[in-house]
Every structure is written in structure tokens, then in C-alpha cells.
Amino acid sequence: MKKRTWEPLGTLEAAVMKVVWTQAHVTAREVCDRMTGRKERAYTTIMTTMDRLHRKGLLVREKDGLAWRYTPALSQPEFEKALADGIATDILQSHGEAALAAFVDAAAEVDESLLDRLAQLIAERRRGRR
Amino acid sequence: MIAALAFLLECAAVAAAVGVLASLLVAGVFLLPWGVPRSRPALRAEGAFVLGTLPAVVALAVVAAAAAPSLSAVLGWSRDHCGSHGHHLHLCILHSSGLRPVLAVVGALSLAVFSFRAGGLVWRVMRTRSRLAALEALGSWRPGLFPVVAVPGAPRLCHAAGVLHRRILISASLEGALAPLELRGALAHEEAHLRRRDPLAALLLSFAGLLVPPPLARVFLSAYQTAAEEACDAEAVLAVGDGTVVAGALVKMASLQRRASSVAGVPAFGQVALEQRVRQLLDAEVRPAVPSRALLFATGVGAGVLCVALLHAAVLHHAVETALHFFS
Fold first, then answer.
1. Which domain of life does the protein's organism represent (chain B) (predicted)?
2. pTM of the full predicted structure?
């Protein structure tokens, strides 16, 4: 199965996820109530954002009376790791021309037998020194 | 309006033609047996950078020199020169010879290809910048001469990034995957890239490559990168004092990337270069690090070529007009 890749979250999406990660099983109203001060947004905006996060697969929801109750599909560390892996794949492909220099050129074809042969060569050289 | 369009298309055609011819000559020079020892990768990198940027420098210098008399007359800096050679086409805004079909087609095609490639390159650079920013927001920063950003995820990133704000990006999980000395070697390698300003040099080579046929641009960039990687390997050996450690780190890193990566394999310079780098590291003697002078040399060569072209602007202008007249 193809591994799911994630895109970085927008500012409001990140703020909503922060609330959901700290307190699972929340409704849009509860998230809205927790977002005060500069983060304060209209209830409908929060509801739309949470619906979008659900469609993206980051939130799972179940009906609770008339409202939806949301739970994170992944924990924060799991999401950050998966996001970092997805971005890293992009970065590895762009090595070279985009002001990046890599220790190893990941976009190159390197087969397993070559790696084994090189590892053997290094081991022999180390043994030869002793 | 027509005069300005004809002038623009003629200049584009000249830039494309000179770029292609100069890159073919430079490619020939690349193939010559130079006798630069393999043990002097820093010197090879400097040569590859100067040669790689030369076609673009020559193309721009020729266009600047060819356009100078007309532009100078438009700005009122010199008197109108066209009366002195009325027998052929004028590369001039004041006395345009009109749109010549062959030149118009070649110029428009060159301009379109250049714009498409330049747009693609700028888009890729901007995208990589935004991806780096998103990744760095997830990581933890360790201060230093070149800050190190340790990011979450599979152990496969060990990159030097940035033109002005230079930093090293590594997967935090590499600390568990590589031995401490191997990690030190990998970081020393990336620090060497940043000291040598290789990310900037690669970016400049990519932009210079816009005036060169794509296969040759790739050859020039890859020649520079291969030599730069070897130069940084040599500095990493200097830092850890043992070539087998750096070679071991290289092979481990390639193996980790192979395991963790879903990146489609592209037959780039990697496979041959990896073997070549490992073999060199095993045979390497510890040598003092040499600072990179690639950017300095290239700036000097570029300024020199432009000065010579502008000093001979009248001759070049006339020669370009004659050539355009002949081909149109």
C-alpha cells in the first residue's frame, strides 16, 4: 500500500491540531472556546477547518448528538515524523541545483551489491591496518 | 515597437547561438586529458566551476558588446553609428532592419525555452526553500558557526543548505545510526561544503546552465559537484584523521537512504561517484584543507571577459551584425 504523505499545516490548522492533540474527543465548539486572544476565530471558521482536517485524514470523528466529536488520527510525534519523511523525500529529489549539497546523492541509483562490496572493502582495509 | 521587438529577438538569438557554441567548445575542453591529479579535487572543482559558467559569461558579454553601440546611441552617450555600415542588417533600435523571419523564429524560440527553463528552476528553488523552512520548523537548532538543525524522521538527511543563512540539516535519528566518529566525519563534510560555499556555486552553475543545452549543463554541474564532494571528503578525513571512517559513513548513509527512501532512482553521477569516493578515501593521505577560490576565479574571469568584450564592442557589434545578416 502506498504510504500516505502529509503537507505542512496552515497557521489555523496547526492551532486547531494543537488543541485536539492536547485534548482528544473535542467538538468544534470546545476547540473554539479554547482558542482565545489572538487565536480567536469564529465558530464556523473552526468548524470548516476541522472538517478540512478530517477530509485530509488528520482527524477522525463520530457523531455526538447533533455535533461531531473529533479525535486525532495520529499523535503529534507520529504526524511530525511522517511529515518530516515526506518533506525529506522532496528535498532528496531536489539535491544539486537548489542551493543544497548532500553527503550522499540520494537521487542516484546505488544497488545493494555495490554497497556490500564497498563495506567489505572498508572492512578489509581496517583489518589490514591492524 | 517593431524595432524594439526585432532588437530583443536578435539579441536572444545571439545569446542562444553563442551559448551553444561556447558550451560545445567548453565540453571539448572538459574532455581533454588535463593531467590534474585526482588527489587535487579542490583544484578540479575550481576549474569545473570556471569552465561551467564560461559559456553563459561569454554569451552575455557578446550580447552586451553587440548591443552596446545601439543602446549607447539611444541614451545619448554616443553618436549614431549606423551610417558607417549601411550595407547589412542593423542590430539597432534606432535603425532596425525589421523582423527577419529566420531571426525572429530563432529568437522567439530561444526566449521561450530560456523563460520556460528559468521559470522551472526558480520554481524548484522556491519550493525547496519552503520545504526546508517547513522541515526546519519541526527540528531543533544547535548553535554554532554553521547551525545544525536536527529534524525528525528516518535517518537519511545530511545536507548543507543556504546561500546567505548557511546551516546543516540532519536527521536526528542519524545519531543512533552512525558511530560518533562517523557522524563527526559527515558533519565535517557538510561544514566543508558551507565553508566552500558549494550551495551558492551549484545555484550559480544552474543559472549559468540556462544558456547552455540541458545535457551539457548537467555535465558541467555534475563535474563540479563530483569534484566538490571529493574536496569535502578530503576535509572530513582531515577532521577525523581516518579515511575508512568517512568511507564507512558514506556507505552506511547510502544504505540508510536506500532503505528509507521512496525516491525514484535517477541514473545521475551517484553510483560511479560513490565507488570512486570510497576508493579515494581508502587511499587518501591526510592533506591540509585548501580554501575554495572557485567563486573568486569565476568572478575574475567573468569581469575579464566582459571588459575585453566591451573594449572591442565596435568590432563585436559589426561581426555580430555581419553574422546575423549572413544567416537571415
1. Bacteria
2. 0.84
- CATH code of the domain covering residue A87: 1.10.10.10
Determine the Cα–Cα distance for residues B274 and A113; give it in Å rounded to an integer.
13
DSSP-assigned letter for residue A10 = P
**Which candidate, B325, B289, B314, B328, places its Cα nearest to that of B79?**
B314
| Residue of chain A with shortest Cα separation from B154 | A85
Q: With beta carbons under 8 A apart, name residues in chain B contacting A87.
A: 131, 134-135
A34-89 confidence digits (pLDDT tens):
888 777 888 999 999 999 999 999 999 999 888 899 999 999 999 998 999 888 88
ipTM of this predicted structure: 0.76
Judged against a pLDDT cut of 60, whether residue B164 lies above it is answered with yes
Q: Which residue has the cell 585526482?
A: B38
Half-sphere exposure of B2 (CA within 13 A, CB side): 7
Q: From the CA of B225, how many Å to the nearest CA of chain A? A: 8
Of A98, A14, A101, nearest in space to B194 by CA: A101
Total domain count for chain B? 1
Give chain A's domain count: 1
